[in-house]
Design goal:
Blueprint lengths: L13 H16 L3 E6 L9 H6 L8 E6 L5 E4 L4 H7 L5 E3 L18 H8 L8 E5 L6 H10 L4 E4 L1 H9 L3 H24 L6 H9 L4 H12 L5 E4 L16 E4 L10 H8 E3 L1
Parallel strand pairs: 1-5, 3-4, 5-6, 7-9
Antiparallel strand pairs: 1-2, 2-3, 7-8
Helix pairs in contact: 4-5, 7-8, 8-10
């Protein structure tokens, strides 16, 4: 998008600093343990796993287990274990049994129960009196029940406001990322405005807004416009080094689904036609 610029990132050393800030808050609040919840909701949810571990949650929920002192752990489902190790900044990744399916086998994972994992974090389980919960408002009933069963005699404290207060104070690196994100958004809006004219459909405008600077995706968008049939173009990024400027070594495959799929809102149709993964 900005050819001479390198996309800003949060440096690895910033994550331990975040953990220390959370542990200072725990000390002040008298918390022995903190559990922060995250899931893959696209437009809502606190995404604490992303802030604490740089882990963008997909497929399965995740929990960050933070002791008052020492290293935290990221608790994920079996399908997310290797993904969390590759993408995240938290070296201690555990597969949580409560996030597994009871009818599935996991020969390549070692699921642990929540009580077992917590017992490894604290020297004396009976000394745990107060546990902070982040993201409690969107936790499932099953996960909340698992926490209450693993820690039956503790006081659970909602610390969502305290966590969000810590996150509201941005570091210089976060400010650079936010500025870059706003520039991408502005480029998308300008591309959408430029695309509006008589005869242009809403999904075509949406395509320009979503992918204003990815040439290989624009090729797919052009093909979509030229076709009168509902087509699906999958675009793979074959390199993890791809940036928003241009997916590296992309290739396109075309698929013609039945006509009955050619229904729904323009935006949902566009989602079926051109996907960037």
């Amino acid at each position: 998008m900005f050819p001479q610029e390198k996309m800003p990132m949060i440096p690895a050393e910033e994550y331990p600093q975040r953990w220390a800030r959370v542990q200072s808050m725990m000390e002040e609040a008298g918390l022995d343990l903190l559990v922060a919840y995250a899931d893959d909701r696209a437009t809502a949810g606190p995404a604490h796993a992303r802030w604490l571990a740089n882990f963008p949650v997909h497929f399965e929920p995740a929990l960050v287990l933070m002791p008052r002192r020492g290293m935290p752990a990221l608790l994920v489902g079996p399908e997310s274990e290797q993904y969390a190790l590759l993408a995240g900044r938290m070296p201690d990744v555990r597969v949580l049994r409560e996030l597994t399916h009871p009818d599935e086998d996991y020969p390549y994972s070692h699921p642990q129960g929540l009580a077992e994992i917590i017992a490894g974090f604290v020297a004396d389980m009976t000394a745990v009196r107060r546990v902070g919960l982040g993201g409690r408002g969107i936790m499932s009933a099953d996960i909340l029940h698992a926490l209450e069963s693993a820690l039956p005699r503790v006081e659970f404290v909602d610390v969502e406001d305290a966590l969000c207060g810590l996150r509201a104070r941005k570091s210089p690196a976060e400010i650079e990322v936010i500025r870059y994100a706003y520039r991408i958004a502005e480029a998308g809006i300008q591309a959408g405005i430029a695309a509006v004219e008589a005869g242009v459909t809403e999904r075509e405008v949406a395509a320009e807004v979503d992918i204003p600077a990815a040439p290989s995706v624009k090729i797919a968008a052009y093909i979509c416009r030229k076709s009168r049939r509902c087509q699906l173009f999958w675009i793979w990024r074959l390199s993890l080094s791809a940036t928003p400027r241009e997916p590296s070594r992309s290739r396109i495959r075309r698929w013609n689904p039945p006509r009955r799929r050619n229904r729904g809102s323009p935006l949902s149709l566009w989602g079926r036609r051109c996907l960037l993964t």
